[in-house]
Amino acid sequence: MKNLLFLLSLTALTFSAFAQTALDETLPVRGISISAPASADVDDFVRFIDQELAPAHFNMLVLLVDWGYAYEKLPELAGELTKTDVKKIVAVCRKHNIAVAPQINLLGHQSWGQTTGKFLTVYPQFDETPHINLAESKVLGNGGDWKDPDFFYCKSYCPLHPEVHKVLFDAIDEITDVFETNWFHAGMDEVTSLADPFCPRCCGRDPAELFAGEVRTIHAHLAQQGKRMMIWGDRLLDCKATGFHNSESSLNNTHRAIDMIPKDILIFDWHYGNAYQSPVYFAFKGFDVVTCPWNSAKVAAEQLEGMLYSRRQASKTFKPHLQGMVITEWSGWEKFRDEYYKKPEKYETGAESVKMLIEWLKKNERD
Q1: Which three-class secondary structure state does DSSP give residue 228?
Q2: How far, CA to CA in Å, does 100 sit from each of 61, 71, 141, 161, 219?
């Protein structure tokens, strides 16, 4: 009986957070994923939600907060975004029935280029690869690229460290509570550093089991509180079988984890250069999925049409898994804003993709 009630609550969570409009049958999820703005830019960001996203019936905002929030439980990891800032975002999203999902990059993306991220800087004992010196390694910006066999992309934390989850759970609980949400995006993309042979805990273990184990651990913590988990989908795609680039699919066998993780996780299937039809694969595996473009409006339009076509052709059982589109943005709010409002500088942003989706939504609302 408890399991049935839990499943029913998750089903309600999937749909009740979204505004009920004439677009819901066509494209249930209509969202954007972007880094949280700096504290000084929050008012601009709120106006953008109020004046641009809401009138077009966007209904999901994924906000990469990471360690940018002023955590009270973890002051050593705190950033500048205040509780007052967050409440402004919460208020405008509640006003327009936009579901908010804060994101912390978990497992991977604990470094970038030659810079170790805040989490492993504060807690170096959690580093999966402490022997890797980023200043001396072939990393981005230091002579490394994906074709180089010695290329090191990003550090990960060790998922088997006995103390790592207490810290992470404190952060997850605080950030979901302050955003007053039952959604949490755990990141977990581009995890290339896993089961390192020098890690005393992970050495010799199956990367798929390690990845799946970390997903299950985080999922179980969220599920106990009635919260739902989101992750990027790239580590669940087989690079060799698909021919996808090895940033958007797995070369270290984590793809087998797709059969080892809970099915109520919402998958964010990102591809930026092509409109691959991998959302159908995730749906066949029993997951809800959204398609995620970025900086090419042409590719975004093709991904949108692919999602719409798949939903039109799907059975009643299959169709609900194909949830819609969330456009990603990786240049930050300030550059996105300048590009969106046609400031003189030209940036690589998802602004034109967002405009494409806004135009499509407004047209189809009328139709």
Answers
A1: strand
A2: 5, 18, 34, 30, 18
Number of neighbours of residue 201 by Cβ within 10 angstroms: 14
Instruction: Collapse the DSSP code of 178 into the 3-class scheme (helix H, G, I; strand E, B; otherwise coil) and give the result.
Output: helix
Residues 70-80: tens digit of each pLDDT: 999 999 999 99
Mean pLDDT, residues 343-360: 89
Residue 321's pLDDT is what?
98
pTM above 0.85, yes or no: yes
The answer on pLDDT for 7 being more than 90 is no
- State the Cα–Cα distance between residues 58 and 34, nearest whole angstrom: 14
Cα–Cα dist 319/306, whole Å: 13
Burial string for 308-319 (b: 16+ CB within 10 Å, else e) reads: bebbeeeeeeeb
Distances (CA, A) of 330 to 87, 216, 229, 271, 350: 23, 27, 21, 13, 8
The whole-number pLDDT of residue 19 equals 40
Type of residue found at 151: F
Q: Which two tokens stand for residue 56?
A: 């077009």
Q: Which two tokens stand for residue 273?
A: 């250069």
* Beta pairing class for 288-292 and 111-112: unpaired
First to last CA, the chain: 43
- Checking if the pLDDT of 20 tops 60, the result is no
Residue 135's Cβ-count burial label (10 Å; 0-12, 13-18, 19+) is: exposed
What's the CA gap between 186 and 222, in Å, rounded? 11
Rounded distance between C-alpha atoms, residue 206 and residue 203, angstroms: 9
pLDDT (tens digit per residue) in 278-307: 999 999 999 999 999 999 999 999 999 999
Could you say which DSSP state residue 29 is in? E
Instruction: Report DSSP letters for 57-118, one per residue.
Output: T--EEEEE-TT-B--SS-GGG--SB-HHHHHHHHHHHHHTT-EEEEEEEESS-SEETTEE-H
How far is it, in rounded angstroms, from Cα 361 to Cα 105?
30
Note the pLDDT of residue 344: 64
Q: Are 170 and 132 in contact (CB under 8 A)?
A: no
- Side-chain half-sphere exposure of 318, counting CA atoms within 13 A: 15
Residue 16 has pLDDT above 50, yes or no: no
Length of the chain: 367
